[in-house]
Design brief:
The protein has 26 helices and 55 strands. By secondary structure, it is of the alpha+beta class.
Length: about 1300
């Protein structure tokens, strides 16, 4: 641990009691392992980890189901396991347990899951081998006993086939093995004193092997998922036991960070203590295991709520994401206004690892009030941690992000050591690990802050504002030559400043606001129009007072009267007033900046605001605030240029960590560039970091940035050589100044000389639905929109703006389909839990849950999008946004937040559940009908070829060939619309086909042809309408499917149609009256009188009686049969009525023939529909006849031979009507067939059929319309399979299926 450079060692030597004791540090990260070395106690013997909280929601378990212990001491878990309650457990106060279920896939980190999966597969192989050996022995014994079988030995033939089926099933189990992962039953209860919880780690129901734990804050107890994984966990229990949060780590990062700040090793392991070993830690996990450990808006806001509740002294956040705005977003606002300003917490965060390019900070770094920390490397770190052959000059790490922020603030506040070897979680199987990054410098600085606050508390200075602490750290830092004047933390210097400077002017934060089109917190001039103009800016500086609404703040405001003396760091080009008087409301003034005379390159200046009444003057004076001015002046001639489109820089020399920055005016009209770097006189490989970036208002800096880490190869030729050349093409923004950064990595030894060339290219592509460019719908730029409804042909015009370009034969490639989906269920707004979701100002958070059902026509990648929240995390205007995608069985398939990520989904029906969280109910109301955008990747792309003329496009002739387009030339070509036959079947009018225009030849530039320069959207039009058949009107009157009331004289077909509609409405009502048997009976008697042989009525009647039977069976007849004779007779009679109403011979003859529907027109189609209705009715009647025979067998209790013969006869009659050579492919038939096999003692054969059916995803009811009830049937057959496995005595696979069932078809959706 590097503590010398920051004066920590000398400070603690002089003040050993100021080691962080009495200070609480909150660590917002991936969680902290309570079992990791150094995480048990402080230097004074207090508990190190005060609390462990999962703010992500990944560990949340809904515990809304109550259960009581049976007389045998068992509680039935939601997984289906019997949970055995240990006798030594206390008795619940109310006699009830709360139970829930949790899948490990939303809880545990990926590396632990992989380790568990490997272990589980090994266990499966061992268990399966034992079963396989037994099965083979049984088959061998049978073959020995019945060596020769004749065709008459039916029973023994079936037994042998069954034994073989068992062997085959066992082999297939291992071949198809996919670990379902752990599925844990969870239990909570109140023992009269406190809430307790446990999870079934064993997954076998034996709770004696797991620990019963209270909330972690009550006793600081934790347990482990097993000696193999060593992944520790603890509990938070909310909402009177209704919500259980299982808290574990999602990686090693958070533990490492916490150890840097405050680890303590009581045994005195030299050099391993953290910076502030006396400090205590609260772990707020913001890394979501469901998203690979990434933070979410929800985890950040919940962490902010926890910080406000707990009033910690210091916060460290070593996380971050890029964003396009500063001081904006719910998390940012909560931190700024409540945590820092109101509670006085010092908030420390990492700058990010996206440097050395400018404006590369990650949020929350760079926001007002936070302390943003860059990473520094010392020579002692190089020797102790990196084992370099030789040390290099101390400096910032090459990767450390830099300011200014996009709105002109300095960005980085201080530097601290950016690497450490310290503790990691026990699950890593390591004691310590080397990590580097600003993630390590931030907790080092946080530890330094903890030392200062520890000292201040112990000398009675408990009211020091976080702004004064930040002021002291920044103003006392040790300079090392940073371009922005940022220094390294110096604890002793900061301490002296804190205890000696008592001016109340330092207890406030000075908000700087620069007025203009793009207002900011500083002045940032970068584009050519900005750096070539003399400017005057209006600036307002406003003091922000701690806890600004408190009486103490009011007193401070009344006392505040600052006499400000301004000084410019560069008066030759930056000017400000000499003096200004400032009250608590702030002060406005003008600033003059004239960059016109500056040389090319980076220029950093300041306007300092000093207290003119301060004790220190001259060089000893330190400013109250500063107005940063940053100018990036482009090269006048671009080095050795050949016109605007080419920049050449020769002979650039580098040593370890050296950075070269060049600012380039990207020509107007440029949209891509090629960067080439050549090496010369280099011994050994050299790691270089290369970045090219441009900025655009309110867009994250990374959006228009290209970066690469390049190993430049050795050469001793003495001259630049193409053999050692690196080149890359990338997109650029024309007219925007770019920063080109080339940096030799700090750890790369030796000197390197390189030549650099950057070549700009500009192609302009526009399209129109008119053959002339001055009419029709015209589009250009980077996104072209083809409105196919307006024209069958689109005209394209491509021009080269900067140089000659080699074009391919242009084409449009469409590779995805975009649909806009409206919510399919009523939107629900509800209040979230009171314990976790109340904002610091007392406002309740509400959630809006939207459900979107959509179809995946073919397995492939799917991308869900909400455009107005894309990439918004730290700057999100909502407290949370989350998407969960489920299949038709409620099995969770993927998680998404605002950062768009593709997910692979199988064919079928899926539901996206979307959660918005806000305290603003009106905002949620406005989102109730919000559209979800879904992009479906096409398995086969659609290509539109180009032609030289309109007629060529229509006839698919006259193709455009490769060509060289000279500078200034323009080429026109035409593309026909997408042929209807190529439109995906699942596309609807109004959908968009998305893709790109390919125009560059593959050999044009280095990778340029792969650039997606021009995106294309193609509007799917309505399908071609076909003329109606002459007979269609007559055919539109539904077929009778039985007798109808004949028309009386004078009555019209319209009246008949009305009568039929009334009849159909009454038939539909039969099912709705299942709960009112009397009313249903009256209605069916009337229908029987008027429509006795109308097939839909007969089917509705059978289904009504069948519902009565299933209700009885569910109540008390599962597996034993139903003895209610009236119900059975009603079903039998209903089946006979259907059979009697259908001419099965005529029906069979119809389906034996091939009917030409196109030739027969609407009449043929109507007849086909009628015949299919009859066929479905006949199948239904035969199925229920078979079920009645099965029921008779179950209740017979004696000789069942005749009944089984009749049962088999019905199945033989049924099979041909199922439309498949394999009747068991129909789940309804299989349900009966599997029962038959099991009843005959052939479970292996039954399992074989069940496995085949269940392995086909098309059978799980995920189709576009599950009218056949496949989803419910799939669950029934899945349960049947589990029963077969039990019958076989295959306990391992029974438990395996039980775990898969809990994942495949859970009872409820998961918590967000």
């Amino acid at each position: 641990m590097e503590t010398g450079i920051t004066q920590v060692d000398s400070f603690l030597y002089s003040n050993p009691q100021f080691d962080g004791r009495t200070v609480v540090v909150a660590v917002l990260d991936t969680g902290v392992d309570p079992g990791a070395p150094g995480m048990q106690s402080t230097s004074t013997g207090e508990v190190k980890l005060l609390d462990l909280v999962d703010c992500s929601g990944a560990g949340t378990v809904k515990m809304g189901t109550t259960a009581k212990k049976s007389d045998s001491g068992v509680v039935m878990g939601l997984s289906g396991r019997s949970l055995r309650i240990p006798e030594h457990w206390p008795v619940p106060q109310n006699g009830e347990y709360q139970i829930g279920i949790k899948s490990a896939f939303s809880l545990l980190p990926n590396d632990v899951l992989k380790e568990m999966a490997k272990k589980n597969k090994t266990a499966a192989e061992l268990a399966n081998n034992k079963l396989l050996v037994n099965a083979m022995h049984a088959l061998s014994a049978h073959e020995s006993e019945f060596a020769v079988l004749s065709s008459s030995d039916v029973k023994q033939i079936e037994i042998r086939a069954d034994l073989k089926a068992r062997i085959q099933a066992l082999k297939q189990f291992m071949k198809d093995f996919k670990d379902p992962g752990p599925v844990f039953d969870c239990i909570t209860f109140h023992d009269g004193t406190r809430w307790l919880a446990a999870i079934d780690i064993s997954q076998n129901g034996d709770l004696s092997t797991t620990e019963l734990l209270p909330d972690y804050s009550d006793g600081h107890k934790f347990s482990s998922f097993g000696q193999d994984s060593r992944l520790n966990y603890s509990f938070k229990i909310y909402d009177a036991g209704q919500t259980l949060s299982i808290v574990t780590t999602t990686g090693s990062h958070g533990t490492h960070v916490a150890a840097i700040t405050a680890a303590h090793f009581p045994d005195g392991e030299s050099g391993f203590d953290g910076v502030a070993p006396g400090a205590q830690i609260i772990s707020l996990k913001i890394g979501d295991a469901r998203l690979g450990g990434a933070e979410t808006a929800q985890s950040l806001v919940r962490a902010a709520i926890e910080l406000a509740k707990r009033k910690v002294d210091v916060v460290n956040v070593s996380f971050g994401e890029h964003a396009g705005t500063y001081d904006y977003g719910r998390f940012t606002e909560l931190i700024r206004d409540d945590v820092i300003n109101k509670l006085g917490t010092v908030f420390v965060t990492s700058a990010g690892n996206s440097g050395p390019i400018l404006s590369s900070l990650s949020h929350p770094g760079g926001n007002s009030g936070v302390i943003t920390v860059g990473a520094y490397v010392t020579q002692s770190m190089q020797e102790d941690m990196y084992a370099l052959l030789e040390t290099v000059p101390e400096r910032a790490f090459s990767f450390s992000s830099n300011g200014p922020t996009l709105d002109g603030a300095v960005g980085v506040d201080i530097y601290a050591p950016g690497a450490a070897i310290t503790s990691v979680p026990q699950s890593t199987k390591s004691v310590h690990q080397l990590m580097n990054g600003t993630s390590m410098s931030s907790p080092n600085a946080a530890g330094c802050v903890a030392l200062l606050i520890s000292g201040l508390k112990q000398i009675g200075k408990t009211n020091v504002s976080p702004y004064r602490v930040a002021y002291a750290l920044k103003r006392s830092a040790k300079q090392f030559g940073d371009a922005f004047g940022i220094g390294i933390v110096q604890v002793e210097n900061a301490w002296e400043m804190l205890i000696n400077d008592t001016s109340n002017l330092l207890d406030v934060f000075y908000d700087v606001s620069v007025k203009g089109v793009n207002p900011g917190r500083g002045i940032y001039l970068r584009n050519a129009v900005e750096t070539s103009t003399h400017h005057q800016f209006g600036v307002k500086v406003s003091p922000r007072f701690p806890d600004s609404d408190s009486p103490a703040a009011t007193d401070l405001k009344l006392q505040f009267d600052a006499s400000i003396r301004f000084e410019s760091s560069h008066p030759e080009w930056i000017r400000a007033p000499q003096f200004a008087r400032m009250a608590h409301s702030g002060r406005e003034f003008l600033v003059d900046v004239d960059p016109t005379g500056l040389a090319p390159g980076l220029h950093v200046g300041r306007i300092f605001g000093f207290d003119s009444n301060g004790k220190e003057t001259g060089d000893n004076a330190v400013p109250l605030f500063e107005i940063p001015v940053t100018v990036c002046k482009a090269e006048n001639d671009g080095g050795n240029s050949n016109g605007l489109a080419l920049r050449v820089f020769k002979g650039l020399t580098f040593g370890s960590g050296d950075i070269v920055r060049r600012y380039l005016d990207v020509p107007h009209g440029a949209n891509f560039a090629t960067l080439t770097i050549k090496t010369m006189d280099r011994i050994g490989n050299a790691l270089f970091m290369i970045q090219f970036g441009q900025l655009h208002q309110n867009i994250a800096s990374t959006v228009f940035e290209t970066r690469a880490r390049v190993n430049l190869s050795s050469t001793t030729s003495g001259a630049a050589s193409d053999d050692f050349k690196w080149a890359k093409s990338f997109q650029v923004l024309g007219g925007k100044t770019a920063e080109l950064v080339i940096c030799q990595a700090w750890s790369t030894l030796g000197a390197t000389t390189v030549d650099v060339q950057i070549e700009f290219h500009g192609l302009d592509l526009s399209c129109s639905t008119s053959p002339y460019t001055d009419s029709g719908n015209s589009h250009g730029g980077t996104h072209l929109f083809l409105n196919s409804g307006n024209a069958a042909v689109a005209r394209f015009d491509i021009a080269s703006r900067l140089r000659a370009e080699a074009l391919c034969a242009p084409s449009i490639l469409l590779n995805s389909l975009q649909k806009a989906v409206r919510p399919t269920e009523e939107a629900v707004i509800s209040a979230l839990t009171a314990q976790r979701d109340i904002l610091p100002d007392g406002k309740q958070l509400f959630e809006l849950v939207l459900s979107y059902t959509f179809q995946v026509a073919e397995e492939g990648n799917v991308l869900p999008l909400f455009p107005h929240v894309l990439n918004a995390i730290y700057d999100s205007s909502y407290e949370s946004f989350y998407i969960q995608i489920y299949d038709s069985q409620k099995s969770l398939q993927s998680y998404h937040q605002s950062k768009p990520e593709k997910t692979k989904l199988k064919e079928g029906t899926h539901t996206a559940r979307v959660q918005f969280v806000s305290s603003d109910l009106a905002a949620l109301e406005r989102l109730k009908s919000c559209v979800l955008i879904i992009n479906f990747e096409l398995k086969k792309s659609i290509s539109l070829k180009s032609s030289k003329s309109i007629s060529g496009a229509l006839s698919n002739t006259l193709p455009v060939e490769k060509t060289l387009l000279k500078k200034g030339e323009c080429l026109s070509f035409w593309c026909a619309g997408v042929d209807d036959s190529l439109i995906p079947k699942h596309a609807s009018p109004g959908d968009l086909l998305l893709g790109s225009a390919k125009v560059l030849d593959a050999g044009a530039s280095n990778g340029a042809s792969a650039l997606n320069l021009f995106k294309v959207s193609y509007l799917v039009q309505a399908p071609e309408s076909k003329a109606k058949d002459a007979s269609s009107e007559a055919a539109s009157v539904p077929s009778s499917l039985g007798t109808e009331t004949p028309l009386k004289e004078g009555e019209s077909s319209a009246l008949l149609k009305l009568q039929q509609e009334i009849r159909d409405l009454e038939i539909a009502s039969v099912k709705k009256l299942n709960s009112d048997i009397q009313a249903r009976t009256v209605l069916m008697e009337r229908l029987q009188k008027d429509h006795s042989d109308h097939i839909p009525f007969l089917v509705a009647r059978l289904e009504a009686y069948a519902a009565d039977f299933e209700k009885l069976q569910k109540k008390d007849g599962l597996g034993v049969g139903i003895t209610d004779e009236p119900v059975i007779q009603s079903i039998t009679n209903a089946c006979d009525a259907i059979s009697g109403a259908i001419d099965s011979t005529a029906l069979a003859q119809y389906f034996a023939l091939k009917v030409d529907l196109a030739a027969g027109g609407e009449v043929a189609k109507t007849k086909k529909k009628d015949m299919e209705t009859q066929k479905a009715a006949l199948v239904l009647s035969l199925l229920w006849k078979a079920r009645m025979k099965r029921n008779a067998v179950l209740v017979s209790g004696g000789d069942e031979g005749v009944l089984m013969t009749e049962f088999d006869a019905i199945l033989i009659n049924l099979a041909p009507w199922l439309g498949s050579s394999d009747a068991a492919a129909d789940g309804r038939y299989l349900q009966l067939w599997a029962w038959r096999l099991r009843h005959k003692g052939l479970p292996g054969s039954a399992l074989s059929y069940l496995n085949k059916y269940l392995s086909d995803s098309k059978n799980n009811g995920s189709g576009e319309s599950d009218k056949a009830g496949k989803g419910a049937l799939w669950k029934v057959l899945q349960k049947e399979k589990s029963e077969v496995l039990k019958e076989l005595g295959w306990d391992f696979w029974t438990e395996f299926e039980q775990r898969w069932d809990a994942r495949r078809s859970p009872a409820a959706f998961e918590a967000f």
